[in-house]
Amino acid sequence: MIRFFAVLLVVLLSLLWLVQVVLAHPGMTTITWGSWSLEMKTATLIMLVAIACVAFYLAVSTLRSLGSLRKNAYRSRAKAQRALNQGLVQLTEGHWDKAEKLLTDNATHSETPVLNYVAAARAAHMQEAYERRDQWLKQAIESDNQADIAVGVSQADMQLASGQLEQASATLTRLRELAPKHPYILKLMARTLYRQESWEALLELLPDLIRYQLLKNEDMTKVQGATLQAMFQKYAKAKQTDKLQAIWKKLPSVVRDNPQAIVLYAHALHKAGDDVNAAALASSQLTKQWNDELADLYGNIRHHSLGSAIQQAEKWYANQPNNPVVQLLLARLYNQQKLWGMAKSYYEASLNQGPNARAYLELAELLETMKEPENAQRCYRLGLRYCIRGEGERLVLVPTQRQPLNPQTPVLTPYNGL
């Protein structure tokens, strides 16, 4: 640039000298081209030639400067691209400080500065430098105002990872206003609400999570289960069966058809004291599709009509006679009916098919009621060993000469007459 002005000064001085010479020796000049001729003062011609030379020089200099600027810009972009590539490699390898420096030093010359700043924010985040992280994210937005969602998603993801739940929730709330159907924003919102234990808000979010098929992986299924369990427990503990039923009806059909959701709802109804509806739900679902958890609950419910419950359980037993869960279910129902001989037989059969710590205790207590202390002690010992070792042992009860308290024979036959 200094050279340019120096040359320009020399040219101007030369031009002034030439003007003085021409003015001191005036004359006429004729230019002839075929039949065409042009006559002008010599001073005018010299002035025009000088102006043309200066204009030509300025034009050439300008073109050279533009070429140099374009060349420098190309070099800067190439350097920025190399820095971006190297920075991403360093970020992937875990060299956070080197990555941050490479990504930010040449970000202004990058063709995609938003990528530089977002990656630099990730590097700062991994160093737990959250203020720098937020600074780079702010610059990312300033560099490309069309990348608001992309930058916001990255910010919320990092805030959630660092345990900044309130900030993540605020970021995601703003993003949902911009993109209410964005699947990853919904997933991040669900995870944030789950960690905040904001169950009511998460319950409101469930329909969207289902609509966009975001509950298929294990983590999101866990989110749904925890939400339902927390809400059901809240109202079950308060004995508010009306609100339990209202929540259940409000849920999408795909949730109401989910076996685990049905189990949670049935348990909540039982805990709230609504055994009639709990039994009806469990019976209907078990007839459609067997579920061990639901069968366990059905055996512990205080049924309004034990006879009908036992008849239904005998039907299930006929379809799967070697299932220890069905046998335990029948044992509990007969125990409630105080048909202790039948209950004892089913308890024994169930425990020999599949050991169960609670069933050992229930049978031991039943045997004490039946005045069989030796057999009761045997059940206590086997139950204790099972709890400690986790391995079942064959249960063999000692025959007793005492007449059973119940005249019903302990033969496993379908129950009739109740």
Entry keywords:
418 residues, mainly alpha, rod-shaped, disordered C terminus
Architecture blueprint of SSEs:
Blueprint (H helix, E strand, L loop, with lengths): L1 H23 L3 E6 L2 E6 H52 L2 H10 L7 H14 L3 H14 L4 H14 L3 H14 L4 H14 L2 H13 L6 H20 L3 H10 L2 H4 L2 H13 L3 H14 L3 H9 L5 H14 L4 H13 L3 H14 L3 H13 L3 H17 L29
Helix pairs in contact: 1-2, 2-3, 2-4, 3-4, 4-5, 5-6, 6-7, 6-8, 7-8, 8-9, 8-10, 9-10, 10-11, 10-13, 13-14, 14-15, 15-17, 16-17, 17-18, 18-19, 19-20
General description of the model:
The protein has 418 residues and is an all-alpha fold. The protein is 74% helix and 3% strand. The chain contains 20 helices and 2 strands. It starts with a helix and ends in a 29-residue tail after the last helix.
Overall pLDDT? 86
Query: How large is the count of helical segments?
Result: 20
Supply Rg.
Answer: 44 Å
Number of strands: 2
- Percent helix range: over 70%
* Proportion in β-strands: under 5%
Give a quick precis of the structure.
The chain has 418 residues and is mainly α. Helix content is 74%, strand content 3%.
